[in-house]
Amino acid sequence: MKNTDTRYIIKLPPPFLEQKKNEFLAALYERKFQAAEQIYIDIVSHAKALSKFSENDEKLLNQIQGTFKKFKPLLSKNVSSKFKEYNNHLKKLILTYIKNSSANIQHVDFLNWEVKLGLNSHQKELVYKTAMTFQLSSGCSNFCRRCNEWALPKIRSHFSYQAILKIIDHMVDQKNDEISLYGASDPLDWKHDNKTIFNVLQKIKKFPIECSILTKVPKGKEPLLKTLIKHKA
Questions:
Q1: What is the DSSP letter of 189?
Q2: Quick one: the chain helix, strand, coil %, rounded to 5?
């Protein structure tokens, strides 16, 4: 009998930008430049209509901009003069959003984050049980060019200290025994009031869970790194 249990199905909104990014790239490789131009116009129109970008939205827009840059010599010869105007408009939209969203760094509490997930209790249990990485911040002060995670430039928000401990506690409850404090961010960027990643690691030591970090050592964080090394964190 077919299993009709839908407790674990996670419904996601239609991935418009993901779809358009792939269509744009395919049209360019197939040298269908007029189609690529229309797809790009659709992308810009969609971005203009958004009141704000999610982290994933901005990552996808950056990937689309990267594709444009790679194919720019071909595009300049095969599309209308308005194409460049659309590209400049999208660049301006992204830069304005970066400036606004990084100007006032927020701290995300546990309840707001969990509600925003929109998952039922069984789905949340699976998240806590199977998570391998724990992204403490949105955005990264390093913003490495070749970031495999497409981290956003500049810090936008952090989990609150209590939210981090609460999430780790839930992971432990679900028998998750190892987590990496990384993922499109640098853990040494994280802070809340007078607390740093050092305080988080000291607290996590009391949990029955293995923890690791990956860092490029953001500018000015060398003393923090020395503290972590001194305490074998």
A1: G
A2: 55, 10, 35
